[in-house]
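Milestone 3.1: sequence recovery, worked example.
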C-alpha cells in the first residue's frame, strides 16, 4: 500500500518499508511492555535499577525483562547506564522519545482500570 508517497508493510516479511503503526504496536502490544513503560514513566524523574523494575512488576522473569529492556534500548525508548562498580550497577530511564509514550500508556492504563471488569464479564459470558 502506498500512502502519501510512502511504502508501508502489509506483513512483517515484506521489505518495502515499515508502517509506523505496525512498528509502534510491535513495541507495546504484549503482556509486559506497557507495564515496564508505565513503571519507568512514573519513577519520579529518576533512573531505576533492574531489580527495582523487576520488583515492581512482581511476576516478570529476569529473562523476559532483559528482553524488553534491550528492545526498548535498541528502539531509543530507554537509556541504559552501566557503572563500573563492584557490584555492577545498571540503571534504566526513559529517553525523551520513550517519555512521549507516557500519555498514551497512562490513557491505556486508565481505560483498563475503568473497563477491565466489564471485559472480564463479557469473556465469561462468551465462554458459557
Amino acid at each position: 500500500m502506498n500512502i502519501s508517497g510512502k511504502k508501508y508493510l502489509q506483513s512483517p516479511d515484506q521489505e518495502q518499508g515499515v508502517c509506523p503503526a505496525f512498528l509502534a504496536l510491535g513495541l507495546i502490544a504484549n503482556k509486559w511492555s506497557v507495564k515496564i513503560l508505565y513503571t519507568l514513566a512514573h519513577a519520579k524523574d529518576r533512573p531505576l535499577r533492574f531489580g527495582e523494575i523487576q520488583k515492581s512488576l512482581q511476576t516478570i522473569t529476569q529473562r523476559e525483562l532483559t528482553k524488553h529492556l534491550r528492545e526498548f534500548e535498541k528502539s531509543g525508548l530507554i537509556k541504559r547506564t552501566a557503572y563500573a562498580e563492584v557490584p555492577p550497577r545498571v540503571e534504566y530511564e526513559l529517553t525523551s522519545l520513550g517519555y512521549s509514550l507516557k500519555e498514551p500508556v497512562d490513557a491505556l492504563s486508565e481505560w483498563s482500570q475503568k473497563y477491565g471488569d466489564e471485559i472480564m464479564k463479557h469473556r465469561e459470558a462468551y465462554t458459557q
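The radius of gyration is 18 Å. The chain has two domains: 1-30, 31-127.
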